[in-house]
Every structure is written in structure tokens, then in C-alpha cells.
Amino acid sequence: MNRVYILGGAQTDFERxxxxxxxxxxALLKEAMSDGLADAGISFDDIKALNVENRIACFxxxxxxxxxxxxxxxxxxxxxxxxxxxxxxxxxYEAACxxxxxxxxxxxxxxxxxxxxxCIIIGWELMxxxxxxxxGDYLGRAAYYxxxxxxIDLPFPQLFGxxxxxxxRKYPQLDEKRYMDSLARISVINYSNAKKNPxxxxxxxxxxxxxxxxxxxxxxxxxxxxxxxxxxSQVTDGAAVVxxxxxxYAKERGMQCKPILKGYGHRVAPILFNKxxxxxxxxxxxxxxxxxxxxxxxHRSGLTVExxxxxxxxxxxxxxxxxxxxxxxxxxxxxxxxxIESGMIEFxxxxxxxxxxxxxxxxxxxxxxxARMLLDLYKQVSSQAGFYQVKNVKNAMMLNLGGSATTNxxxxxxxx
Amino acid sequence: xxxxxxxxxxxxxxxxxxNIAGIFASFGNAKVFCVSRDIDKAKKTIPQxxxxxxADAIVNNLIPADFSMLEECVKQSDLVFESSIEDLDIKxxxxxxxxxxxxxxxxxxxxxxxxxxxxxxxxYPEEVRKQFFGIHLFxxxxxxPLCELIPTIYSDPTIQKDLNNYLTEILRRKVVEVKxxxxxxxxxxxxxxxxxxxxxxxxxxxxGGIDYIDxxxxxxTGRTMAPLITSDxxxxxxxxxIVDNLYKGTNDYAHDTFLLPDYANELIHEGRxxxxxxxxxxxxxxxxxxxxxxxxxxxxxxxxxxxxxxAFPFVNRMNAFLSEGEYQKCFEELVGNRSMEAELCLSxxxxxxxxxxxxxxxxxxxxxxxxxxxxxxxxxCPPLAMYHALSTVTNVSALIEERLPELSGLGFVxxxxxxxxxxxxxxxxxxxxxxxxx
Lengths: 416, 438
What we know:
The structure holds 2 protein chains of 2 kinds.
Chain A: E1 4-11, H1 25-40, H2 44-52, E2 56-61, H3 65-68, E3 90-93, H4 99-112, E4 118-125, H5 132-139, H6 145-149, H7 155-170, H8 176-194, H9 209-213, E5 222-224, E6 227-228, E7 238-246, H10 247-252, E8 260-268, H11 273-279, H12 288-301, E9 310-312, H13 318-327, H14 336-341, H15 358-361, H16 369-381, E10 395-402, E11 407-414
Parallel strand pairs in A: 2-3, 2-4, 9-10
Antiparallel strand pairs in A: 1-7, 4-7, 5-6, 8-11, 10-11
Helix pairs in contact in A: 8-13
Chain B: E1 6-10, H1 15-26, E2 31-36, H2 39-52, E3 62-66, H3 70-76, E4 79-82, H4 88-101, E5 107-110, H5 117-121, E6 132-137, E7 146-150, H6 157-170, E8 174-177, H7 186-203, H8 210-216, H9 227-234, H10 236-249, H11 262-269, E9 282-286, E10 292-298, E11 303-306, H12 313-323, H13 327-336, H14 340-363, H15 368-378, H16 383-391, H17 396-403, H18 405-408, H19 413-418
Parallel strand pairs in B: 1-2, 1-4, 2-3, 4-5, 5-6, 7-8
Antiparallel strand pairs in B: 6-7, 9-10, 10-11
Helix pairs in contact in B: 1-2, 3-4, 7-8, 7-9, 7-10, 7-14, 9-10, 12-13, 14-15, 14-16
């Protein structure tokens, strides 16, 4: 199979509220695409030339623009960016908050099979078009809506609050305070890392351990069971672009030392949260398909957790990052708190998680998140992460979840 | 790094004082004595301080106090921040108490934006003047990170460096060191623009005046709020204090643009200060049934009337381009449209670029200081980014020569423009269409 190189990309400033700026989907796509292409060293003329020979394609990740901006047929909207996209194969891919990861998967497959030489992934979501209650209801469609979402206020915080409950139930030796403090620390680490990221949504916000522990106060109200606002990711507008290419194209352009995709994992767990828990009753892992996704990525890349220098994970809530720690293999299941208390996953730790700030700190425009994570792995591996650069990164791994850890995607990027 | 564990904020019940107490208590994790004339008022301000930084966690850091406790508070403090009203006599009184009790290692700062920092330093005993600085934040500091740091001739450079580090790294401010000059840098640039807009409203009163000018300089020109709405929001009294100070204390080519027009003086005289007194340049009329109506002061008639929904073709087209992210086409429209309104709008933006760079050289370290203050203190497209934005469609230097010959005639514009460097700021996010489009 052909190798897949990452050429570059860009994300928008996740602090921006595009509705307040009076700008819509097309404006977002134009800015993200022009920045992403510039970073990757690809011009509109390059796209035109590649398209004459049918060597380029685009992959759009988006969850639910039909609700947020009343628009479907999203693959076709790249033609509004520039005439260079006329005739370029392009389609939208969807798997809730893992939408971009499916788009990445499709792009990778096309390069591996030598169908296309250059693939552009653009993930995006505009979420600030509606109030948070309405938006929360839209997001309920990432679960089994009629059973888990409809008529429920903020269904996803409820589901990840249940994940917290189930974590405590499954591991009875895990002290509740120790667990809740660990979740608070996860939040603080993400906020703190986001301060280093000039494109993070929360880079000017205040958070500390005391505040993250003061759940149930006016400034940190409960939003789902035992989880509070500080445990949750943000409502974010944004887009992320990643450009990939084949070895053939990289050679044509004389591009050297570009990171490559080393492995992936993709597993889908039962959509209903309760069925996930029923299924895993006898398994040491609460979310065994998440763990399996990681194992698949390790297996395909020939790497182990020892070889991974930095992680980007799907901290839509602190309870999901907590579970990811054992899924990555950083601790045994049920002992995730060890990696938090020891400082292992902090910015300066031996296995940093989310130096970007993650979904809690950097932001979570749902359809863009997978592409944003991949972009951050690319930045880390190619030493372009600026203030949030982790030292000596050779391999980096991401975990992107859709729904209540229903769609699981993992990718490993590394130096050739 | 400075070890600031205890802070005294004098005047902590004022809007700025309260917000700054919140910044020290949260990002700084300092114990903050919130000093006011009236301790009950200080107590009542605590929830407001918590809200300003969205953090209940700081509640134990906030200690209400009154002036009788000031000596004791200062003795315990690593930093004393004075945020009292802009009255030299009152500030002198405070300086005496602070000066007598300030520990040797501690820093004393003032949030004053209208008085000379050097004059204030001289209110302190000689031995503590080296520890005294102007620390000028912008409202609200939680969302506007700008902090102008103003040393005086007495300031100790080592303390200054440490304080700059503390403000940057711990309080997470965008620190810009500026000279002790009237209104410093941000307000000088910002209020030059706003006051000239206020003057133009008078000049163009037959066209509608206030709302007419705001319609020409709206969000599509690289800001969150039109300039006269901003003045109404800040308050005409504050606006007047700033421009009077600038008129009195500066003497550059833009001197006359700091003259407050007569109608604004009359409004202030009548107590019509703006949003805070419900009536100023604008007035929001509320009806019993919940219906609200935005009205504006008509300079010609002296009465409030409904805001006119101006529909200038160039504005409509700029907005339409912005909503689809067509920045170049938007700027082409601005530069290419020769209607009187478009020319007026463009001349304001060009004057803004030139004046910003001119003053930055005088008050700041270099021209990028102007960018930092306007982006992080006003949320306006900063001048270098504005220059870059217009450069995507035209030769800005030639445009200035063509549109503003009187400015070009002054002889320094070419040199200023030659010193321009790339902005750190992305102009795109500042130009807003002011309407939602799918």
C-alpha cells in the first residue's frame, strides 16, 4: 500500500464567533481553506492542474449543518471557495463528533489505493448560530435521539455524566473524591495548555483547581449528573484543514521530512449508552471498543504506547478523557488517576495529553475536531506547534469519538 | 518572578476597581483587600467581582475593607492598586497614606487614565517613587487584555521589568510599555477617531448627524461597535475628560480633532452622559409592554428621534462581501466607490492608520505598539493590519496622497509608511458584516 504524507494545514481561531461577525459557512470555508493550502504549499492553480488528471479530491467533515445553518449537500460547497474546485471530487462525511475522522479515513484510503495523489480534508461546524439549549438538542442526534435525546435538556452532558457514574460503579476501589479531583485536574490541564495555544477558544479564560472543584456554584453549575461546566468542552465555531498526499506527489514536489500516517483504528460500539455498559460488564474496560480502536492503531503501525510521545484525545467531557488514559495503555483500567496524579499527562509530563488544550481548552466545533486533532499531531511531529510544542516528538496519537464513544477513531502520525 | 500574594485595591467598588480586583484574585491568586469608603458597599461588590471573572473560587481571596483599614491593608500588601476617582486632591490624600505604609519590597500602581503619572508619583514620599507605576487596564479587563504600563523618571527599571513579567505571565495581560503622556497610547488613538467622528456628526447634521456618521463607520470598518455608540457606552463625561486632557496636553497635527463639539458639552451639562444615564448620544426608550425603541440625539433639532436605517449602496455591498468572506472585493468596493459616504469612510480609516503610527512612535516603543493597543484594548482592526487589508487591493501610500493631500503635505507620511511592518494580527476577524448570513 502507498504511504500517506501530511503536507500541512490550518485551523481557524476558535475564539471567533462567526455569527457575531455576520459571516456564514462560505466565509468559514474560504478562510480555512486558503490558510490550509498556504501552509501546505498548494495553490489554486496546483489544484486546477492536478484536477485535469483527476489526481485530487476533497473530503468534508461536518456533523449537522442541516440544523445549525440549514444546509446539506456540503461536499458541493467547496466550489464556492474558488473556481479551482469546479470538477474536483468532493463529498461530506459524517459520524457525529468523529465526522472529520471518517473524512480522513476516506482520504487515506484513496491515497493508499493510488486513486488520488492529493487529498484535502476540511472539517467544520458553526454552532453559535443558535442558543446553547437548542444546540444541545441538535447534538442529541449524535445519540439515539428518540431514546436518549428527545425532550432531554442537554442530552450529551447527561450521557457523559452517566459515564462518570458507571466509572465509579465499575471500579469500586476508586474513591469518589479521588475520581472527581482527577476530573477537575483534567479540566485544569486542558485550560492551562490552551493558554499556550494562540488559536484556542479559552486562551483568555480563568480556571484553576478550586474553581473546577466548585461544582454546583453560579459560575460552575452542574450540567449533567455529577459533571459541571468546568468538566465540559465548549460550544465552538471553527474549521480545520489538513492536506495529505501520496509518496509520488511528495517526490514530484521535492518535499522531504513530511510526517506520515502510520496507523489507524476504527470501531463502532452499540449506539445506546446502556447497551455499551451491558456489553462491557465482564470486560476490564468500561469502553472496550475504544480500547480496541487504540490497539488496532498500535497493531497497524507496529508501535506501542512506549513509542507515542504525545496524545490528542476527545475530552468532550473530563469523564471521556479519564477513560482514554487506560484506553491508550498509559495505566491499567480503573487506575487512570495514577497518570493524572503523577503529572504524566501534563504538558511537561512523560506522556502529555492535549498540549493544544483539547476540546475543553482549544474548543470543539464538532465536525472540525478530528481534523483539528490530526493537524495538531502534524504540528507536534513536525515541530511547528509553537508555544505548545512538546519536545522530541517522533510519534503522536489521536482519539476522536462520535456520540457517547460510539464511533471510535484513532490515528498515529509519525516521522518516517 | 515577583511574589505577589497580597494586593490592596483602593476604589474597589468602581467598575474598573472591581474588575481589576477580580483579575488579581483569579489569575494572580492573590488575597485582595477591596477598599472602599463604605465597607457595606465593598461587601456588596464581592458578587460582582466574582461574576466579572466567572469564578466563585476567588471568594476567599476577596476581603472587603474601608478607608479606616487602609494603613493596615497597605502594610500587608505586595502591591497596592489605586483606582479612585480622577481627582488629584483625592489621589494625593491616598498617596500620603500609601506612601507612609508601603513595604520596601512592594509596588504601588495607579489606574489613572487622565492624570500625569509623574505628577502622581510626586505625591508619594521620595523613597517609594521608584516603586510607583501607571497600570492602565481597559474595561472589561476579562475580555480586553490590554495593560498599558507607564513608568516615570523615578521608576526603578528592575522593578519595572519584574512588574511587566508579572502582568504578562501571571495576570495574562498584553503589556505595552508607554510614555507618561496624556491618555497614553490606546485612548489617544481611539478617542482621536471617536472625537473626530463626533465632530463630523455636527458637521453633517443635515444628513442626520450622529447616526449618519455611525452608519458610515460601522462594524464593516473593522470594529465591534460604531464609534459614537462606543462613546455613548463609555459615557460622554469620560469621553470629555479624555479629549480635554489630550487637547490641553498634546500639540500634534491632529490637535483640533480633540476639541469636544458644543452639542456634546450641552448634553453633558444636561446630565445626558450615555448608556449609564439612559440618554446621551443615543437613548433606548422602553415601553411598559416591553417594547424597546432605539432613538438618537438629533443635533439639528436638539430632540431624540428614531435611528434612521441608512442604506448606503457601498455599505450594503461591503457587508454582502464580508458575509461570504470576500475581503478583497469588500475593500475594492470601499476604495473604488466614489460616493461622498464611501470617501468619508475611507478617509477616516486612512487617517486612523497615519495617526496611530505617528503617535506610536511618540508614546510607544515602536509602531507595533499601536497594533497591540488597538487590537487588545479596543477590539478594532489594528492599524498595521488595516494597512495590510487595504494593501491587498491598492497602494495605500498613493491612496493617502490622493485622498488626504493635506496630511501628505505635512511631510512625514512617506517616512512613517516606509517603516510599516507586518501585523501580528489577522485583519479578517475584525471586519464584520453586522448581519447573519447562512
